[in-house]
Amino acid sequence: MNAFHNYIQVAGGRLMDLSKPQVMGILNCTPDSFYPASRMQDEDAIAARVREITGQGGTIIDVGACSTRPNSEPTDEKTETERLRWCLPIIMRECQGTIVSVDTFRPEVARMAVEEYGVSIVNDISGGSDEMFAMTARLGTPYILTSQAPDINSMIIDLTDKIRQLRSLGQKDIIIDPGFGFGKNIDENFGILRNMEMLHSLGLPLLVGVSRKRMVYTTLGITPIEALNGTTVVNTIALMKGCNILRVHDVTEAVEAVKITNKL
Fold first, then answer.
1. Which residues have a catalytic role annotated?
2. Which of 32, 129, 170, 197 has its CA 20 to 30 A from that of 5?
3. Per-residue 3-state assignment (H helix, E strand, C coil) for the chain
């Protein structure tokens, strides 16, 4: 068992147990996410996706309204906010108490999602900013801190500095994301995966998001649509190295990987 505290506090004072790995299902309210099957464009599709995630065993729903696919221009803040204002009421209605995370790098978008809709976690893939650190500390929500460092040693240095800054602001619950696919080439991604257990020295839970990413499908010479089996292999490796949350498009397969590795 990792050395960090096993629980994070989410909306309403609820505690989420991370002593056993959890599965976070991706729900994109966007027309341009890199994996077409994750794009939800109408109310029925969003509601169905929420029911799919929860029905397949996902315990967190990660909602994104600004694509961060490679070589894309980020959606402007106004559009991101409008998309979330449209989809979050549907998600919160359908989620039946399942924890909801917002995938955003913008402090005001995070504030809106948490204060107006009751979102429980802020998932920031940008690597953080002074403004976002101050906002999430004020909101009191768990914060997913992503590193864009290209190797494990520089990642630990980068994260240590940012964790210290967050703690000084009063941030209680921090989750580390090694940032597979962000600021790294394929070999660097696999180097971080190979040495990922070193991140446990930070004493914080780890989230891994490799679902159908370039490191998987390029290595196998296939497309993202064909990359489910490869994703499951990498997810299983991450679990065996102590991952606490898997962020995925395909919830059933991730839940099965968790069940199998738990038997070990």
1. 213, 247
2. 129
3. CCCCCCEEECHHHCEEECCCCEEEEEEECCCCCCCHHHECCCHHHHHHHHHHHHHCCCCEEEEECCCCCCCCCCCCHHHHHHHHHHHHHHHHHHCCCCEEEEECCCHHHHHHHHHHHCCCEEEECCCCCHHHHHHHHHHCCCEEEECCCCCHHHHHHHHHHHHHHHHHCCCCCEEEECCCCCCCCHHHHHHHHHCHHHHHHHCCCEEECCCCCHHHHHHHCCCHHHCHHHHHHHHHHHHHCCCCEEEECCHHHHHHHHHHHHCC
